[in-house]
Amino acid sequence: MFPILVKLTKPRSRKPHYGLNEPTKTGLSTRYEYKVRRGTHRVVFRSRIHSKPAAMAFQSNVISSQPQVSVTSYSVTSGSTDWSSNSCDCFEDWGICLCATFIPCILAIQVAQDNGDSCCVPFLPGAMIALRTSMRGRYRISGSVCDDWVVMACLPLCGLCQMAREQKTRG
Q: DSSP state, 140?
């Protein structure tokens, strides 16, 4: 390890001295120069310490109130509707009810294809919940993803019948 020698010099002064240097005041800042010798290399660091001006101008205008924010409210109607039939109204359409009872995979494939999705969608985990959410978004039916999850987890065949009836009534 090389010993580090620190030489402090006054700016614009050719004669180096050791110890604290006298700072040079230029306007609002004080400038120090540090010369460090490490081995055969010499590095000069310069820093400025900024201070407040001696006299600040007094502002005669006094601000007595804050700017006010005006709020305008708008109401946006989303035109959301409800499902055309309830989840447990499976017996309104006997054809859909029998198809969901005996061959639900065929009905699920038909509902997915009518929605514009692949025929493989009903066989993916959680895809029927996503399909129901997609149908709600397409037909602007009110509800939430949690509602879709409850219906498809607790009453999957009734939810499938409801989606098929909705597609049949909306065309």
A: T
